[in-house]
Amino acid sequence: MTNYYAPIEDMSFVVQELGDLEGVSRLPGFAEATTDILQAILEQSAELTSEVVAPTNRIGDLKGTYIDNKQVMIPDEFKVIYKHYLEGGWSGLSEHREFGGQGLPQIIGVTVEEMWQSGNLAFTLCPFLSKGAGRVIAMHADQKMKNTYLPKLVAGEWTATMDLTEPQAGSDLAAITTKAVPEDEHYLITGQKIFITWGDHNLTDNILHLVLARLPDAPPGVKGISLFLVPKFLLDENGGLGQRNDFYPVSVEHKLGIHGSPTCVMSYGDNGGAVGYLVGEPHHGLSYMFTLMNHARLTVGLQGVALSERAYQQALAYARERIQGSIPGIDGRVTIIKHADVRRMLMLIKAYTEGMRAMAYTATTSLDYSLSCPDPATRDYHHARLDLLTPVVKTWCSEMVRETTSLAVQIHGGMGFIEETGVAQYFRDCRISSIYEGTTGIQARDFIGRKLIRDDFRSINLLLEEMHSLKMELATAGGEFTIIHSTFDKCLAALANSLAFVRINHTKDYAFAGTVAVDLLMQTGTVTGTWLMAKSALAARRRLDSNQGNRRFNEAKMITARFFCEHISPLTFAYELKILAGHETVSAMSEDQF
Length: 594
Hints:
The protein is α+β, with helices and mostly antiparallel strands and 594 residues long. It has 19 helices and 12 strands.
């Protein structure tokens, strides 16, 4: 098993060239977001991730978590990581200064998130769920609740999680039955929640649960859901920890992967009711929770980048060391990286990973603009762009990481199937990413229904206009960009054809959208990846022409972009054929014919 090393050079390149760090630094409050600050944070985070976080990945996978005396116990090694996390101030890196954060933009914070997730995904789920929960409180709670809980969350002294799913409901949140009954200035919560990531642990003194529940007068369906903050320990009159609240973990799930992350079944109110506090207005809980869910969906997409990167590093190291076979022109046995098929697989992992990183970071820039830009038109533009890209980032990255981690196992051959080499863990850990925070099918229906049809295709057309502008730049660049331009031109035409087909046919049959949605979302992701890799190639060419940066890195970036266009972008045309086939054969068989 190899150690993880942070891809600082590519992270810095993407933040500056695609993440618009210069523009973000001109937004109010972000003047400190300079390239020097970025580099310092990258180097410090890389050192901590490589030396402290990454070595615990296998340990967490082997030890797992368990319940002792109604509390979830985690590996002791995770406590060491968290101590470094707090002492280094990493918890508040991109959080509001008002509540103790450092106030740096998300486009810098995302690099740290990627590193830590590469180092130990199971552990990192805890602090980054807390970050999303803090955003919900910051945007939707009253000032008293913000003042009471956000400083502790931002400092990392307490953690937080979200409690949505119930055994009978699954992804259908309209079917939840957890109840909230008013009593004095609070509510009593009763019910059971499942699949609660880091729902309990012994890492911090207190855990804040954001719980979806129904009031006694709640209307049916999703319009009757409210959101409550339910702390593990109630606070006394001085703001210190008081009485233990009436909810406990019933069990932790035995999962395919991310064994170090406790996925809990939580029971509320077995002894009268857990005390909870209403967040915002009654019956608006689901819309509030989407603040956290959309943050989580971007984070899950980033998990695809992180695990793909670590799998690539391990596969590359193995390919450079493993001696097997021979090739014409070289005497004796050779390392397997000299075999063409191994190089093909390594290039696929590398190209997918860089495309994923470009996509996730680009969406993060829109997040910064949507939250901080003083110009309403620009802010609205990026808010719409973020809405459009969120399901693309979540789905494309979570689907493609299964391909990259599988290829990493394949490069190891039989040794990849052996747990001791470590590469199988990335394959197992990534499998959840296309399931939690909304399955691929749910993301696709949201994409085609809300982001395209309900939007009357406005946001996607604006994105296509931007892509066409880059296509013209590629055309004038000529030379080595001829193939990239030609492929990108054909990809844009294929996506436009698919969108036109959907616009014409989506009202004809209910099954149509459900049949084509995933392929359309994956096609959009592939074309978006092509766009960003082409954009990266142009930036690398400019850097070469001006003698900026590492020449070998810039040359490799251009080669990888061309490889992406030649070996990944053609999937666009296969998706187009599947979309144009429509839904007839999907709907043709009766249930008893399956």
